[in-house]
From TrEMBL:
One Pfam family linked to the record: DHH
Gene3D superfamilies: 3.10.310.30, inorganic pyrophosphatase (n-terminal core)
Listed GO MF terms: nucleic acid binding
Superkingdom per UniProt: Bacteria
Listed InterPro entries: DDH_dom, DHH_sf, DHHA1_dom, Oligoribo/pAp-PDE_c-di-AMP_PDE
Protein name from the UniProt record: Phosphoesterase RecJ domain-containing protein
DDH domain location: 37-183
Residues in DHHA1 domain copies: 259-337
Length: 341
């Protein structure tokens, strides 16, 4: 069984956005030879994970492959992302084959991010199948048999676009919308975009993306979201001495705050908290169940919040990262302050 790190130039259309140094030809050959492909994103999938998986699945379907897309948990797709599944390719985790012949894992910084579907990787390899890992996180290990790994790419969607070019699959509105959603959100709605990012966005728009409608999906929330926001922002605290004097602003979202809203509705709270000019680091701890928290970290300066997240069992990017924690809200916030130094 080979362990091919995919390694040559990306197509010129995406080269400037970081999709370099990978053998897209080898990955394309692997997928052309496949007849049945299972694509997995990480648990609690975001737009980049789900959009990348669905875009590639739609392209493979055009090539006559049988495809399915899934993720480990939760059981439902976030409301804002449901419209991306235009062809009904999403299946529940229980319907994922025990040992897929060809498995593609997207946007997972490690196999642990597959949650309860982590066993599919080992099972596929043990059965002589192939596991293609496509990811843009820093330090992603080579846990597959084949890899497209580029931590300079702004989104996994960019790497998928390069692979579609290699497969010679033309963009259509459905595929382009899935990719655009990933680029849009992983660049912080283009806050961290480069000129190359905008060139890619223009290409996707030209392929039929309705950017206004898609952006509206991410902007809309139920009325209860306003009440939740007032409560959560009202308990925000500023710690000027944290992060070596660069400052930390933090807040918590308790289960009792989420009446009428879902965990997906609170994902953007960290970006509002980050707007504080007195702190370079923002942290929001969201209670998933009693004593279990998912924490979002953001940085606007030179603080590496990925290093903080990794030290606490998570991961991500230099300016956007996260981890899961257990204990009280006070315990969680204390661990963040210690990790920041």
């Amino acid at each position: 069984m080979s362990d091919n790190h995919v390694g040559v130039d990306a197509p010129a259309a995406v080269r400037d956005c970081g999709a370099m140094g990978s053998d897209y030809a080898a990955a394309a050959d692997l997928l052309r030879a496949a007849t049945d492909v299972t694509l997995l994103g990480h648990v609690n999938p975001d737009a980049d994970a789900l959009g990348s998986a669905l875009a590639l699945a739609l392209a493979l379907k055009k090539l006559g492959k049988r495809t399915r897309v899934s993720f480990g948990s939760p059981d439902t797709v976030p409301e804002v992302l449901r419209g991306l599944d235009s062809d009904g390719l999403l299946v529940p985790a229980c319907d994922v084959p025990a040992a897929p012949a060809t498995l593609v894992v997207l946007d997972c910084g490690s196999d642990r991010r597959l949650g309860p579907l982590i066993d599919r990787v080992a099972a596929t390899r043990a059965a002589g199948g192939r596991v293609l890992v496509i990811d843009h996180h820093v330090g992603t290990p080579r846990f597959g048999t084949d890899h497209i790994l580029d931590d300079t790419a702004v989104a996994t969607a960019v790497l998928v676009l390069a692979l579609l070019d290699e497969l010679d699959v033309p963009l259509d509105p459905a595929i382009a919308t899935c990719l655009y959603a990933g680029v849009l959100t992983d660049t912080g709605f283009f806050r961290r975009a480069t000129g190359a990012t905008h060139r890619i966005a223009a290409r996707l728009l030209d392929a039929g993306v309705d950017a206004e409608e898609l952006s509206r999906r991410f902007d809309e929330h139920p009325f209860a979201w306003l009440r939740m926001l007032a409560t959560v922002l009202g308990r925000a605290e500023l710690v000027p001495e944290a992060a070596g004097g660069r400052g930390l602003v933090h807040t918590t979202v308790h289960l009792s705050d989420m009446v009428g809203v879902t965990i997906d509705d609170v994902e953007g709270v960290v970006d509002l908290v980050r707007s504080s000019s007195e702190a370079e680091v923002a942290a929001v701890a969201k209670e998933l169940e009693p004593g279990v928290w998912t924490v979002s970290l953001r940085a606007v300066g030179d603080v590496d919040v990925r290093a903080v997240a990794v030290s606490l069992g998570g991961g991500g990017h230099r300016r956007a990262a996260g981890f899961t924690a257990h204990g009280t809200a006070e315990d969680v916030l204390a661990s963040i302050k210690r990790a920041l130094g």
